[in-house]
From TrEMBL:
The lineage of its organism: Eukaryota, Fungi, Dikarya, Basidiomycota, Agaricomycotina. This is Ribose-5-phosphate isomerase. GO terms for cellular component: cytoplasm. InterPro entries: NagB/RpiA_transferase-like, Ribose5P_isomerase_type_A. Belongs to the ribose 5-phosphate isomerase family. Keywords: Isomerase. It catalyses: aldehydo-D-ribose 5-phosphate = D-ribulose 5-phosphate.
Amino acid sequence: MSLLISINIHTAYHRVDHELNCIKGRGGCHLREKVLAEATKTFILVADYCKNVKYLGTNIHYPLSMFTHIFTLGVPIKVVPFAYNKVLQNMHHILGSPRATLWMAVAKAGPVVSNNRNFIIDVPFDNG
């Protein structure tokens, strides 16, 4: 018996381009959310104008208090802890993203650990 969810409404996407392609991943749960989205008959994405970018993997504007700040947030890539250093090197040298970094935690020491105990690498790309 296969699982089929009738409708899935999701509000936490972080970047959306002009063709409605999306990137998810700032919360660290994107693997499970992707599995649920794939098992859904009707998927509804809710995002405001602050999530719009011309190219995925480039700058995004986040409103903080009364000012708008620009953050460079790359494509979030989940990686098993054992392989993160090699994957990070590949992002730098093979994919040409020298600013790719391991996502480090703010309120604790060390990297962010996803709900599946993986690390997340942010891989920013230049426009276009």
